[in-house]
Inverse folding.
């Protein structure tokens, strides 16, 4: 199956950061707002999505108020680009070939800027993303290019590529 077949089969929709997604799980249990000081309300304990990027697409730099665990399912390897809280650039390759330095999963920590690119421009990557406490668009922030260029000038090429003007 190609990327468009998977998008149709999994009933994926366009995602604001780029690519396609569908929420596949939301925990019935919720964490109360009074124990989530960085969130503006209660959140499900955990949420999960399918996420697909075509080779010519990218996940724009963004950050969440929760940790996100990426799981590789199939397709081309994917690189997760992260600007961590220590102002360091970290790249993780997700894929099914550990001898080539690929990992089956990766954690992006709350508050870190991150985005993703497909390693093969003619391929696609299908991954899963699990967020805990659960995802809410109120906790999602797309990066401001100028702000990131000031904070991470050494990563200008990446920031220009993975943000909107």
């Amino acid at each position: 199956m190609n990327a468009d077949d998977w998008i149709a089969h999994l009933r994926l929709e366009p995602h604001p950061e780029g690519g396609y997604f569908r929420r596949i799980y939301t925990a019935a249990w919720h964490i109360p707002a009074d124990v989530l000081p960085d969130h503006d309300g209660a959140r499900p304990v955990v949420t999960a999505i399918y996420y697909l990027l075509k080779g010519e697409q990218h996940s724009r730099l963004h950050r969440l108020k929760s940790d996100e665990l990426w799981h590789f399912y199939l397709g081309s390897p994917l690189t997760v680009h992260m600007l961590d809280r220590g102002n360091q650039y970290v790249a993780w390759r997700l894929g099914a070939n550990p001898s080539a330095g690929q990992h089956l999963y990766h954690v992006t920590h709350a508050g870190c800027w991150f985005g993703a690119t497909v390693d093969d421009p003619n391929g696609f990557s299908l991954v899963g993303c699990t967020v805990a406490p659960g995802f809410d668009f109120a906790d999602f922030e797309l990066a401001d290019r100028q702000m990131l260029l000031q904070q991470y000038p050494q990563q200008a090429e990446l920031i220009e590529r993975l943000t909107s003007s």
